[in-house]
Amino acid sequence: MGLFGIFSSSADEGDKRAQEVRAGAVAPLRAERQKCWEARDGYFACLDANGIVDALKDEKKAAKACKSEAADFERDCAAQWVTYFKKWRVQDIQKKARLKELEAQGANKMDISTDFTERK
Predict the structure, then answer these.
(1) Is the pLDDT at 6 greater than 60, yes or no?
(2) Which residues fall within 8 angstroms of residue 40, CB to CB, at 6 or more apart?
(3) What pLDDT does 93 receive?
(4) Where are the alpha helices (DSSP H) in the chain?
């Protein structure tokens, strides 16, 4: 290790770990998952504010409206998670709309939660 290696090793290790998490080479730690969820929630809030449901289908509109939030989301989450969460969002919105339709038709409501974003 040279003289300059002393000053850059911890920053380089952090960048390397972030790249490994992003690529799916290592599992994210609890703090890294929390950071990902926060970035996801910020991105989804931006999509909501701009009336965008499907960020994959409306990719250009989402990129334009939520550029910084998307950058944070993609930086802080594993690539596979980003795609998964974008698909999950569409399914969750469709599920909630269908449940609302069923309730309007008189279906009995059951108290069951399948929403993983509700942390206790």
Answers:
(1) no
(2) 73, 77, 85
(3) 95
(4) 3-23, 30-49, 59-65, 67-76, 79-104
Task: With beta carbons less than 8 A apart as the criterion, state whether 17 and 40 touch.
Answer: no
Question: Six-digit token pair at 76?
Answer: 């802080």
- 28 CB neighbour count, 10 Å cutoff: 20
Give 119's pLDDT tier (boundaries 50, 70, 90). Answer: low
Condensed to tens digits (0 to 9), the pLDDT of residues 43-55 reads 999 999 999 999 9
Q: Which residues contact 55 (CB under 8 A, 6 or more apart)?
A: 43, 47, 62, 66, 70, 86, 89
Residue type, 99: L
Residue 116 has pLDDT above 50, yes or no: yes
Cα–Cα dist 108/101, whole Å: 12
The amino acid at residue 115 is D
User: How many beta carbons lie within 10 A of that of residue 107, not counting itself?
Assistant: 10
